[in-house]
Design brief:
The complex is a heterodimer. Chain A has 3 helices and 11 strands. Chain A is mainly β. Chain A is globular. Chain B is of the alpha+beta class. Chain B has a domain at 10-60. Chain B has a 3-stranded antiparallel beta sheet with strand order 1-2-3, with no helix packed on it. In chain B, strand 1 and strand 2 (18-26) form a beta hairpin. Chain B is elongated. The chains are: A mainly beta, B alpha+beta. The interface between A and B is medium-sized, with 37 and 25 residues. Chain B: Homodimer; the beta-strands of each monomer intercalate to form a hydrophobic core, while the alpha-helices form wings that extend away from the core.
Amino acid sequence: MIVETKHFGKIEMQEENIIIFEKGIPGFEDIHRYGIISNEDPESPFCWIQAIDKPELAFALVDPFAIKKDYDFELSDENVSALGIEEPSQVAVYAIVVVPEDISKISMNLKAPIIVNTNNKKAAQIILNSEKYTVRHFIMDELHSQGV
Amino acid sequence: MLVLSRKKDQTIMLGDNIEITIIEIQGDQVRIGINAPKNVPIYRKELFIEIQEENKKAASIGIVKFDNIIKNK
């Protein structure tokens, strides 16, 4: 299908790249369908999700493990069943990225990762109980601290 | 909104399986104990609002060449 995007004009979106947030994303509870726009560079940890029905709404995402190697959390049984997850290999994890005016302060939200069941395309932004993570981890600091 | 008065060690039940107990009252702070099934998510409302606000910020960003950011750090 053809999707009007915030940043890339009209693009062809494959059905298999469309994910459904049944509860929306906090702050955008009414928007449910998003399309994943992968980075042209397959090595890049960044990608976008574009709201299918709202061209002006898009989020930049990052693979959190690419930035913070020791990121870990446990999915609650509730999340596992809500998303219909049957095995770990079905799970894709993303962190939402914020880019402020000072681009060196680019941050990602590790407290509330986006979980996608790649089999049935159900997605949710879940809130972790862990106190280890916050909504704002500075990506540059994480990269420096790991010597990347 | 329902408003109730409770004293220390008193409990409120929400439905059959959620209990909220006042554990301690000190000045303007109250310690609360919550007994609820594991599948009921519980978090501070500030955290939920913080996540909403962070998402709104995330949604307002322009196009960014991320890979340049990382490479030029």
